Amino acid sequence: MMKIGSIVRPTAGKNQDRFFVVVSMEQDCALVCDGRKRKLDHPKRKKCKHLEDTEHQLDLSAVTTNKQLRKALTSLGFFRANA
User: Fold this and answer.
1) How far apart are CA 77 and CA 6, in angstroms?
2) Cβ neighbours of 78 (radius 10 Å)
3) Taking Cα atoms as reference points, which of 1, 5, 24, 11 lies closest to residue 52?
4) Computed from CA positions of residues 60, 55, 16, 45, in that sequence, does the dihedral angle turn out positive or negative?
5) 83 inside domain
6) Is residue 50 part of a domain?
7) Could you tell me the residue range of the domain that residue 17 belongs to?
8) Is 82 within the bounds of a domain?
9) What's the farthest any 2 CA atoms get from each other in the chain?
10) pLDDT at position 11, please?
């Protein structure tokens, strides 16, 4: 079940090899960001059916900057430095 703080991966498209964090939920869409290409102040709107849940959660109350988001994804093994 996808919810705020879930780490997800798009199932198709140019970003399918990247991991994102769900920062907000709408009716059938999720707003996702990764801290590098998609910043916290401008998240990407994706339909939930196009996202694959990794079953990992991130505590967004501790994440307030893009750098902290990248560091949290890196520490969990979801972020590559050269991506």
Assistant:
1) 14
2) 21
3) 11
4) negative
5) no
6) yes
7) 6-75
8) no
9) 34
10) 95
3-state secondary structure of 64: coil
Residue carrying structure tokens 């520490």: 75
Question: What pLDDT band is residue 83 in, cutting at 50, 70 and 90?
Answer: low
Give the pLDDT confidence of 19-50 residue by residue, as tens digits. 999 999 999 999 999 999 999 999 999 999 99
Question: In 3D, which of 60, 64, 29, 27 has the Cα closest to residue 44?
Answer: 29
> How many structural domains compose the chain?
1
Residue type, 75: S
Number of Cβ atoms within 10 Å of the Cβ of 62: 8
Bridge partner residues of 46 (DSSP): 30
